[in-house]
Structure formats: structure tokens, C-alpha cells
Amino acid sequence: MTLTRRFFLHRGALAVAGTAALPNFLVRSVLAETADAPGQQLVVIFQRGAADGLNVVVPYRERNYYTMRPTIAIPQNQVVDLDGFFGLHPSLAPLKPLYNQGHLAIVHAAGSPDMSRSHFDAQDYMESGTPGVKNTSDGWLNRALQAEDACHCMDHDEEHTAFRALALGAEVPLTLAGKISAIALNNVNGFTVAGRGPAPSPAAQAFEAMYADSGDRILHAAGDETFEAVKMLRTADPAQYAPAAGVNYPKSEFGASMRQIAQLLKANLGVEAAFTDVAGWDTHVNQGGVNGQLANRLGDFSASIAAFWRDLGDQAENVTLVTMSEFGRTARENGTAGTDHGHANAMFVLGGQVKGGRVYGRWPGLANEQLNQGRDLALTTDYRAVLGEVVTRTLGAKNLEMVFPGARLNREQFFRLI
After folding, report:
1. Helix intervals (H) in 101-138
2. Domain edges within the chain
């Protein structure tokens, strides 16, 4: 069996990725014994499929919005008003209290400057942080963690745990690929370790056999540290986790992901960056308006995020969550009561330190002559500017050229979201 330093355990509950020799990053004791106060933590949610930002955050004072969307527009009297011009889709009502409390900020007309309408290319460009560059093999969030290490704002005697960077899913996404080792968990409770607790799962058995039979020194190290990480996770007893009183997550895949991220953040395992994604946003046909396909997706999305926020309790003060999608959708509905691939979109930034209660960004307008290529909401904010501000303020990643090479981000142009 030929194995490289970057490897994935497909179909398993846990994967480890790294492009350089793996460091001895695991603290060999339970972090809770030494940690007094949690650091800042970043959660990234990718909405795969291109969410319709115009029906997510509705510019309900734009007359042309209703002209272009005769069957799927959200009526003014059903929009959840934000500021007299923009409003939330009614299915996002669970997020309105977070906006009112000043924890939720929205950036509209944001996205990638690359004009691709391909889901695959656009997602890769956004995850790599290098729009239009196809040969980038690592992700912006991994580079942000590298930039954190490169600056002098962290204690260089501090060791990071195996849970520093993690994703909910079968494998590490491009966003987290790179020199900083990251783990992926399908299910926090579904990976058992030989010699501890019940019989090991088939995935654990296969993984243990794979590295035990190998003579590769790096693979042995990765295997040892992976199983130490799982032991560390089990020490936190995730199977006994109960959300905060009154918090009920949706019984959905995304709801489960947000619940498990909350588990991991609250377990004091040293998580700095967490990633998850949610599909189902590609609404070419029968998108719906107040009700229907998009409304159902938004209901699950907002209820899961609101439950996550309430579940964190006081710890939410140290957490920032940001959402993104590869591009928006056309301003006009199509002939099948849906929308096609567009351009600019809306991003959410939620956090204890966020200056929320506002819709940020320059609004380009929806008059026919204001549309991008005559069909899309025009882009006025590069998504990398939003993420650049977030990683600077949460992770202390000061070298933004390292995080987003070629973007030439100017901190003076930041919104001061955080």
C-alpha cells in the first residue's frame, strides 16, 4: 500500500491531513486541566450550491425586485424587516433576535470577483482563497492558522491540540487543507478506539491495521496521534453531551453538525477553527417564495444556527461564525419558477464580538442597468475582505498576503465588523 503524507480515511469517522511532516502537536493531557480561559474560535459554514442571496436578505424596497420575480419574490408584508430597506426571508426569523441584540451582521453584494458560473470551480476558488487560480492546493483557513503561528501574538511555548482545526464530514475540505494538520469527524460519538470502551468500529479497525502494518515513520506518527486525539475526545465523554436547557437542534444533517461543533467547542479541546457545509441551495426549478424548497432549507439553516448560538451560552462571547456560498443567483426568476447561477450574494457574520445589527456593504441596486452582465446582483465587496477582517480579529492572522495571496487587502477598507 502506497501512502502519502496527506491521506484521508474515506468513509471513516475521522481523517487527518497535512502536507508536511506532522509535528508533535498533541497535548498528552486533558486540556481542561491547564486552560483557564478559552481563546477566540472561528466557525465557517459553506452553503454549497449557490444560495439565492436576494431571497435570503431581501431588498424589499427595490421595485425591480418584484418586477423580476413575479412568483418567487417575498411580499413586503411577510419580510422580517431589518432596517427599512432590507429584510430576512420569513424562514430566517430565528436569526432576527441575534440581529437585534447586535450579534449578527450581514454583508450584502459580497462574493468572489471571479466570474465563473461553475459550482466546482467557484467553490474551489472560494475555498482556496485564490479566485481564478486553479493550482492552489491549500485553503485560506489553513493559511490563516499558519499566519497566526508566524506572527508574534501567540505564546510560542503553547502547544496546539489535535483539535485545533477540524471539519464535520468524511474528509478534510480544501478550506482546511495545508501545512497545519486538520481532522475531519463524521460523527463525534461514532469512532471508538481499541482498548477503550466498546469494540472498535470497522473504520477504526481498518485505520489501526493500516498504520500498524506500515513501515512508514510518518504514517506511524499520524496513527499514534490520531488515536491519542480520539482518546482525548472520549475523555470529554461526548456521548453524554446534552445541549443547554431549552435548546433543541433540528433533526437534520446540518442540525447534527452544528450540535457536534458546539460539543467540541464546549469540551475545551483546543478548537480554534471549525468547518462544516450544508448543501441543497441549487434552486433552478420550483424554488418557492415564502414557502417551498428554499424556505425549507432556510428554516433548517436558521434554526440550527440559532440553537448553536443559544447552546454556547457565555462561551459565545469568544466565538465568531461566518457563512459563505460560491455565488448568488440570477436577479430574474427563470421559466421554471427557479433561479440560475448568478454572482454576488449575502454573507452572515455572527459573534460575541461582532458589531451586528447592520447590513454592511455598498448596495449596487437592482435597476436593469445596474445588474452584472444584465442578469445578476453586482459585486461590491470581495469575500476575502470579510474573511480577512474575521481572521485578523479572531485568529490574529496579521499577514493577509499570506492568507489571501494577490488580494491586496487594505485594512483601512475593512467594515470594522469585529
Report:
1. 119-128
2. 14-413
The confidence score (pLDDT) of residue 327 equals 98
Answer whether 375's CB lies under 8 Å from 120's CB: no
Please state at what angle helix 140-150 crosses helix 383-394, rounded to 10 degrees: 40
202 contacts 7 by C-beta, under 8 angstroms: no
In angstroms, the CA 33 to CA 39 distance is 15
Is 184 in contact with 20 (CB distance < 8 Å)? no
Q: How many CB atoms lie within 10 A of CB 298?
A: 23
Q: Which residues of the chain have pLDDT under 70?
A: 1-38, 152-158, 190-232, 234, 236, 238
Residue carrying the nine cell digits 447592520: 358
Rounded to whole angstroms, the maximal C-alpha distance in the chain is 68
pTM: 0.85
pLDDT for the residue 186? 83
From the list 169, 202, 200, the residue with the least C-alpha distance to 185 is: 169
Using CA atoms of 276, 382, 95, 123 in order, give the dihedral in degrees to the nearest 10. Answer: -30
